[in-house]
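Hi everyone, sorry if this is the wrong subforum. Our group has a chain we'd like a structural model of before ordering constructs, and none of us has done structure prediction before. Sequence below.
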Amino acid sequence: MAEILTRREFALGTAGLLLSASLAAGCRSGPKGNGPAISPSRLIFGYQGWFGTPGDGSTLDRWQHWSTAQGPSAGTLAIDHWPDVSDYPSRLLADTGLKLPDGRPALLFSSYRPEVVATHFQWMATYGIDGVFLNHFAVELAPQSPQRQFRDGVTANVTQSAEDTGRRFALMYDITGADPSELVQSVQHHWLASRQQWSSRQYLQHRGRPVVGIWGFGFVGRPGTPDHANQMLDFFSAQDVVVMGGVPARWRLGVVDSQSGPEWSAVYRRFDLISPWTVDRYHNLAQMRRYERDILRADVAAAANFGAAVAPVVYPGYSNHNVRKVEDPNEPPPSLNSVPRRRGQFWWSQVQSFQRLGAPFIYGAMFDELNEGTAMLKFTEDRARVPVGPALLTVDTGEDGASPDHYLRLAGMANRFLHEGQALPTEPPREVSGSNP
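Answer:
Right subforum, don't worry. Here is the predicted structure as tokens:
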């Protein structure tokens, strides 16, 4: 179960961003490029791309992140939402062995299949989502390893799908679970081997410079020292790359989830962009507003003082019942739906608040994170479409009438307001309900 344990708890809302011209003062100049320029007030999601199935053509050739490697069952399933698979060609889907209430087999997809990733990017284009940060874990990047082969396949899928649909993408590296003695070299090697990706016309750039995300430095209990962080930043500085740091929510204060001391403070100040990780850090609207008032506003001011900008993270809700049950079978798992979505109101209010704060870009956790219940892609709308046995949420859990594409619609509508520079209304537009974009 090492894969789920490594990637679950701090899976980076690897995701979203687009910068404003206000970042120019804090960024080094570089040669002009052909990629999409970063522009203000937009939304990009994190993309895990980590789901594998037997027979998907990868060298792993097994269940990955859906469950333990032995396969899905009521006791081994590691997701809390069941995806709606009606848009994927059935020939690409794997039989889980679980049954739907009407007796049909319950099927799941693999991110290794190009057609699956193409479907996700077509949704992004249809609903008006700009693109993704593709998350890679440093621990999985050993050359010639089965995990590296899987990740390279997913990266190729994302690159092609972004180019086909006009979406944007960038790479992000998560240091969770990595051997500290190898993490810097692993990321450097992968970046240099990924020239085809960051040379793509759809790769996210700022003033001709590619953007990369580095997530995990400074977190309590995570690998890496200030020296490792500085080696990584020195490398990307020499490569003339804009670096976004996925950092602890209390990075500026050096408390709670953040390591403390002047060395870590100096590391944080080296990032061009600061993205504080807030998934499961506040659980309702009142807590979110206190975070904005008491923490985030001061973060924005502090970052501006050293020439950076803050990319706030927004997330729709949280539920990690099944993955925790698999990881810690001897401990009682958390309840389902630990941070309720409120039919999208929780997510919408975060975007509205952070836009009001003047954030130049917003980072969305996550497009396809079904393990922790932060996914925005299509998932099932009623009990008739989830397999019998496992404990699972549906779109309509406490959210009467929501459709499988509810959160894709919500994201597209919010992004439209951001693109147009219009303030989001307090309530999500009613037209978000329904089954067609």
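For your construct planning: DSSP finds eleven helices and twelve strands in the chain. Confidence is low (pLDDT under 50) at residues 1-38, 433-437.
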